[in-house]
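Exercise 7. Given the encoded structure of a 382-residue chain, write a plausible sequence.
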């Protein structure tokens, strides 16, 4: 039997001062607020700087410059440009993305798809997956599908069955990923629903692998309840990997990030990506400059074993997924890990250092460096 979280959408129910509630109501009038009772219990309400609180409780700085926000500011990676059908994106040659839900176990303040929660943008959802299945069936280059949202694990099991069964009937789809923060938001969705695990096993019985791309942003989210859910998923044969943005006041510290990598690795969850926080409207108070973030990630990796340091530091730009590969005293080296234009795959971009840069666009506006010496190039550590 599926056990759903009990949600809280009203700031008045939080243990905040009346002044805090009045101030933050200006934020929730624009950007939605949502938390569940389990996750609320992870917050140290006596600490105004508590990192778990920061993940989910609004910050007044989110609405700085609100009068200048545009529709494009809510979709900085221009996902609409790659949407071939409602709820189906085909940006990278071998990968399709299905937006299956606009509901999560909470609302991260730094969410890059917060537009889905703001206007219930059903036009961006694959409410009927059959057209998506037809498109994928006709495009035999698509080898893998990412089901995301929102959080697909907020869907009822019968809708997950429909998605997974439909993909299992397409011969050239070899594996499927589900993006979910439910192991952090509300792990009981997994651990107390045997039917859900049977859904996953049924899909994998077709000879395909299922991956759950989880979103632990801070080591304190990896609770005993979360570890129990992880173990049940692993026992069922699901492979897990973790990704998180680097976030000011949450994990922008090498020791915290190293602990996150280590705890994930010990739990059998591979550290996969650390992302530069996308410049979505409202996200600036959570963003860390690119070069500072790179340094934090590298210092964290220096504190852990090889298994825990497999993580890549990347940006999901509209041109592709670019990895920040190295810094020299004068330059930043960026590599296309994925690319909307296949000709850019593996391409190296070299820019002058810019400590204020928050996104790839800040470097692109400077222009690439073309005259590096061979001796300096030899120092690059890719």
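Solution.
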């Amino acid at each position: 039997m599926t056990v759903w979280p009990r949600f809280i959408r009203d700031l008045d129910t939080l243990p905040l001062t009346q002044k805090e509630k009045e101030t933050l109501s200006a934020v929730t009038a624009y950007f939605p607020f949502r938390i569940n009772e389990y996750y609320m219990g992870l917050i140290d309400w006596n600490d105004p700087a508590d990192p778990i609180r920061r993940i989910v409780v609004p910050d007044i700085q989110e609405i700085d410059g609100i009068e200048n926000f545009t529709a494009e500011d809510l979709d900085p990676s221009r996902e609409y440009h790659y949407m071939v059908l409602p709820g189906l994106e085909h940006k990278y040659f071998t990968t399709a993305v299905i937006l299956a839900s606009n509901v999560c176990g909470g609302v991260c303040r730094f969410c890059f798809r917060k537009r889905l929660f703001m206007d219930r943008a059903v036009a961006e959802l694959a409410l009927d997956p059959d057209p998506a299945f037809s498109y994928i069936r006709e495009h035999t280059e698509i080898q893998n599908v990412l089901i995301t949202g929102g959080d697909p694990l907020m869907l009822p099991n019968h809708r997950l069955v429909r998605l997974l069964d439909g993909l299992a009937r397409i011969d050239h789809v070899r594996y499927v990923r589900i993006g979910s923060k439910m192991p952090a938001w509300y792990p009981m969705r997994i651990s107390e629903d045997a039917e859900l695990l049977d859904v996953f096993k049924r899909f994998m019985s077709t000879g395909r692998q299922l991956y759950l791309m989880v979103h632990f942003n801070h080591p304190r989210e990896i609770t005993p309840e979360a570890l129990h859910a992880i173990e049940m998923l692993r026992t069922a044969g699901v492979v897990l990997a973790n990704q998180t943005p680097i976030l000011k006041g949450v994990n922008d510290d090498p020791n915290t990030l190293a602990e996150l990598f280590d705890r994930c690795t010990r739990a059998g969850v591979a550290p996969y990506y650390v992302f530069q926080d996308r410049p979505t409207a409202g996200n600036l108070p959570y963003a860390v400059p690119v070069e500072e973030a790179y340094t934090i990630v590298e210092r964290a990796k220096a504190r852990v074993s090889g298994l825990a340091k497999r993580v890549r530091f990347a940006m999901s730009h509209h041109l592709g997924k670019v990895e920040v590969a190295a810094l020299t005293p004068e330059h930043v080296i960026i590599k296309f890990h994925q690319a909307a234009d296949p000709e850019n795959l593996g391409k190296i971009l070299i820019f002058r250092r810019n400590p204020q840069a928050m996104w790839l666009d800040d470097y692109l506006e400077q222009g690439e460096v073309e005259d590096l010496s061979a001796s300096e190039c030899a120092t690059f550590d890719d």
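Remark. The two ends are 48 Å apart (CA to CA). Students should compare their own answers with the one above.
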